[in-house]
């Protein structure tokens, strides 16, 4: 059996650990030959491959990013002369002797994988997103690393905020789900946490900030990039769409800094963590989870359990249908946000 592996969407700490787990178990336990497709769905669309043997995965466990490269290529929007993207992938897999795919990605990548599986391409999925917003798994690898990076930044910003008696706003990733903001804000002792699931009242935010200024400490506001005020629309940084139709978000941190300065008379600065959150060395938790996902993904391939994704439920790795994994996003529940509100102000 020959199996292709690809990583799609944004890079994420732990991707290399998954690849390593797939390769080591696939070769050692099942005698499977592995081949890597470069740059997400572009690889199988263009038959762009690299060898994946045990030598290729030595030393990659602590490395961030992905040795396979990634992209946001959408196979359903790619077509060649007389062929759809699906037909190109089928033809290239047949030409390379690849029997199945292990697809490591988030909502968009796994959504495409589910459609390709329905079209007759055998696929097993591995959930990947620092946003932790895939509903079929308790946690996704990369999330713990992103939270720790954001928490460390917040820890450092506290002293600067207090030294200069200014408000500091930390904008973190989170388009539709505020898990990073919630966890990093709680762990870092933020005075306000704003998430996409809960449109915020700017007057209440200002009240929290003013209350904090009355102490000897300075306010830290953590905001997810997709958070927005209740009664007004924020301008986007860019109107451009990616291959999956997502517009680039941004600007909420600067908006908050401007409103705080205007309404309180105090200095406010915004720090956008951006891609720092998803780069670099993964935490121990993410290395272990990603490794286990890789081991169980190639086991699913061996069992011909195609159309499934591996997922974490409690402490066990289970298989769930790909279609279930991408049906709906896992959002922050009201009661979880209420726990954080205890510490606002």
Q: How is the topology of this model organized?
A:
Elements: E1 2-7, H1 15-30, E2 33-37, H2 42-46, E3 49-52, H3 85-96, E4 100-105, H4 107-118, E5 123-127, H5 143-164, E6 167-172, H6 179-188, E7 192-194, H7 202-213, E8 220-224, H8 252-264, E9 268-272, H9 284-302, E10 308-313, E11 316-321, H10 322-325, H11 334-341
Active site: 131 (proton acceptor)
Protein name: Pyrophosphate--fructose 6-phosphate 1-phosphotransferase
Keywords: Cytoplasm, Glycolysis, Kinase, Magnesium, Metal-binding, Transferase
Features of the shown structure:
elongated; 2 domains; 345 residues; 17% strand; single chain; 11 strands; Rossmann fold; glycolysis; metal-binding; 4-stranded parallel beta sheet; Pyrophosphate--fructose 6-phosphate 1-phosphotransferase; 7-stranded mixed beta sheet; 39% helix; alpha/beta; PKF_sf; ATP_PFK
């Amino acid at each position: 059996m020959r199996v292709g592996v690809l990583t799609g969407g944004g890079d994420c700490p732990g991707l290399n650990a998954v690849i390593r787990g797939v390769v080591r178990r696939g070769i050692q336990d099942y005698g499977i030959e592995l081949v890597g497709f470069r740059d997400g769905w572009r690889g199988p669309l263009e038959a762009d491959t690299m060898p994946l043997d045990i030598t290729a995965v030595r030393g990659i466990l602590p490395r961030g990013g992905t040795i396979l490269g990634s992209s946001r290529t959408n196979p359903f929007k790619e077509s060649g002369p007389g062929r759809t993207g699906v037909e190109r992938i089928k033809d290239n897999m047949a030409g390379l002797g690849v029997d199945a795919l292990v697809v490591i990605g988030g909502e968009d990548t796994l959504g495409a994988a589910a459609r390709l599986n329905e079209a007759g391409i055998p696929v097993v999925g591995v959930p990947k997103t620092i946003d932790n917003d895939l509903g079929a798994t308790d946690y996704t690898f990369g999330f713990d690393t992103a939270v720790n990076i954001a928490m460390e930044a917040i820890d450092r910003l506290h002293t600067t905020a207090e030294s200069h008696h200014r408000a500091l706003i930390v904008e973190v990733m989170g388009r539709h789900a505020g898990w990073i903001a919630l966890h990093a804000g709680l762990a870092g002792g933020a005075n306000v946490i704003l998430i996409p699931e809960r449109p915020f009242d700017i007057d209440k935010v200002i009240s929290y900030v003013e209350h904090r200024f009355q102490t000897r400490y300075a306010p830290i506001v953590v905001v997810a990039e997709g958070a927005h005020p209740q009664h007004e629309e924020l301008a986007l940084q860019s109107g451009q769409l990616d291959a999956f139709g997502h517009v680039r978000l941004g600007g909420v941190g600067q908006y908050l800094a401007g409103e705080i300065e205007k309404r309180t008379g105090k200095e406010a600065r915004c720090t956008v963590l951006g891609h720092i959150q998803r780069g670099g060395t993964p935490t121990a938790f993410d290395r272990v989870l990603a490794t286990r996902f890789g081991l169980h993904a190639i086991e699913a391939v061996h069992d011909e359990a195609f159309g499934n994704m591996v997922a974490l439920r409690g402490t066990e790795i289970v298989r769930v249908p790909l279609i279930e994994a991408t049906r709906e996003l896992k959002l922050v529940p009201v009661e979880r946000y209420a726990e954080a509100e205890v510490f606002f102000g």
